[in-house]
């Protein structure tokens, strides 16, 4: 191993690659791979989270507006992440075999992680606490299927959490109006 290989091995890039390789290896188990592929498909374009938000709006008529605004924040996080991808243009990992087909070539940040985390924060504020473990599983699935580096997922999760937190007051009150 030469000096440059050793530097890469210890760098953030090297750590990113090693973590991805280790988590991706767990996908050799067909049950793990199948669950990760199912989550990947369900999370495409934030569909799972948008459906959950709309279901919350239908089921919880008293807080329908809050659910709708939380759903809008979730969609917003997804859209922002897609915009960041177009600017950063980081290629998807090439050192592992992907277990799902992706529509885009870029990996930073993970849009699945952005929408999942935005939903966990927004819908969690409305009492839908079961979303957080499912969102965590969604984030991990991106590594198991081999289409994102851990830093892509972390950046997407931060973006999603920030989007939901920035819009928290709007979500609870709507349009800046306080309810009596």
Quick take:
With 180 residues, the chain is mostly helical. The chain has helices at 3-10, 12-26, 30-42, 47-59, 64-88, 111-124, 131-144, 150-166, 168-173.
Question: How would you describe what is shown here?
Answer:
With 180 residues, the chain is mostly helical. It is built from 9 helices and no strands. The longest helix is centred in the middle third of the chain and has 25 residues, at 64-88. The model is unreliable at 1-7 and 175-180 (pLDDT under 50).
Give the helix proportion (percent range): 55-70%
Main β-sheet description: none
Q: Give the CA-CA distance, first to last residue.
A: 68 Å
What shape does the CA trace take? Answer: globular
Number of separate strands: 0
The low-confidence runs, each spanning 5 or more residues with pLDDT under 50, are 1-7, 175-180
Quote the average pLDDT.
Answer: 87
Strand content: under 5%
Counting copies of identical and different chains, the oligomeric state is: single chain
Order of helices and strands, N to C?
HHHHHHHHH
| Cα radius of gyration in angstroms | 18 Å
How would you classify the helix and strand content by structural class? mainly alpha
Number of helices: 9
SSE blueprint:
Blueprint: H1 3-10, H2 12-26, H3 30-42, H4 47-59, H5 64-88, H6 111-124, H7 131-144, H8 150-166, H9 168-173
Helix pairs in contact: 1-2, 3-7, 4-5, 5-6, 5-8, 6-7, 6-8, 7-8
Which short descriptors sum up this protein?
180 residues; mainly alpha; disordered C terminus
């Amino acid at each position: 191993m030469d000096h440059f290989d050793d530097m890469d091995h210890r760098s953030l890039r090297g750590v990113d690659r090693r973590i991805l390789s280790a988590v991706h290896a767990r996908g050799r188990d067909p049950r793990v791979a199948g669950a990760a592929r199912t989550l990947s498909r369900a999370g495409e374009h934030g569909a799972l989270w948008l459906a959950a938000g709309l279901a919350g709006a239908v089921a919880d008529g008293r807080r329908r507006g809050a659910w709708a605004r939380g759903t809008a924040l979730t969609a917003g996080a997804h859209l922002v992440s897609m915009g960041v991808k177009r600017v950063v243009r980081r290629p998807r990992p090439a050192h592992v075999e992907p277990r799902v087909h992706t529509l885009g070539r870029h990996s930073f940040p993970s849009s699945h992680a952005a929408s999942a985390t935005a939903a966990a924060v927004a819908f969690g504020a409305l009492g839908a606490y079961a979303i957080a473990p499912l969102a965590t599983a969604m984030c991990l699935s991106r590594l198991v299927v081999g289409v994102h580096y851990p830093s892509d997922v972390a950046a997407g999760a931060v973006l999603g959490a920030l989007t939901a937190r920035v819009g928290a007051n709007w979500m609870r009150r709507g349009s800046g109006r306080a309810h009596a």
